[in-house]
Design brief:
single chain; mainly alpha; Helix Hairpins; 2 domains; 4-stranded mixed beta sheet; 4 strands; binds zinc ion
Length: 236
């Protein structure tokens, strides 16, 4: 077991850890945004339900106005009944009264029906209020959790970077530039282990000659994908 392989393996694991911490840092705001958008959707649904209640109440208000205006009309017509100058006129007025009473009976039924709809719509409003509040709290909780974790994640990144700088001393000067380019391009994928005879990044077989070089502790890049290789069975 070469010390180079163990050192490269350790370096690879540090890069993987850095990648993992960076992912958590990126994922946090995405989750918060997702939860906030969900809360906004619940608010929109609440507004729609509230609008529905408002519309139904307006309809009830209008029908109540019609009802009262018909009642006034009926009262007025009843007064005219006594002063009817003929049977014909009496019958006409009576017919009008009956028509208005019928209209009011229909209006009353419609109002009752609307009141039931309002009850149902108000129940729905309440359920959206609850859903909206829960979604808001959820978003707030996620944001607070992330805020609390952020500092330790930042610290972990600094730790990883310091450990990486330390571990990278294993990389000789003549390949530092090439390795830095690999890190820029692939991040934690700059290194790849060799499992059995294959590069774990691209699954291409490593030539026997290169495996001999790897085993003797030389730095070898995969000829297929360019990653810096190390033997997987290296011990830390
Ligand atoms: Zn490869």
């Amino acid at each position: 077991m070469s010390t180079t392989a163990a050192g490269l393996k350790a370096l690879h694991h540090l890069y993987l850890r850095l990648h993992e911490v960076n992912e958590k840092l990126e994922l946090g705001p995405k989750r918060i945004k997702f939860k906030e958008q969900f809360a906004l959707q619940q608010e929109d649904k609440l507004k729609t339900a509230q609008e529905q209640v408002t519309q139904l109440k307006k309809q009830v208000q209008q029908k109540n106005l019609d009802l009262h205006s018909n009642e006034a009309k009926i009262l007025n017509l009843k007064g005219k009944l006594n002063t009817a100058s003929s049977n014909k006129e009496f019958d006409i007025i009576k017919g009008q009264i009956e028509a208005d009473q019928m209209a009011n009976s229909v209006l009353e039924d419609e109002i009752l029906e609307l009141m039931e709809k309002i009850d149902a719509a108000e129940t729905e409003v309440q359920s959206w209020v609850t859903k909206k509040d829960t979604a808001r709290e959820d978003a707030k909780k996620i944001a607070q959790e992330f805020e609390a974790a952020r500092n330790s994640l930042d610290e972990e990144i600094q730790e990883c970077k310091a450990a990486i700088a330390d571990a990278e001393r294993i990389i000789p000067d003549n390949i530092k530039v090439q390795f830095a380019r690999l890190v820029r391009g692939h991040g934690s994928g700059a290194l790849a282990s060799v499992e059995g005879k294959f590069c774990s990044a691209c699954n291409v077989m490593i030539e026997p000659q290169l495996r001999v070089e790897l085993n003797s502790g030389r730095l070898v890049f995969c000829k297929s994908c360019g990653r810096l290789l190390y033997m997987e069975d290296a011990q830390d």
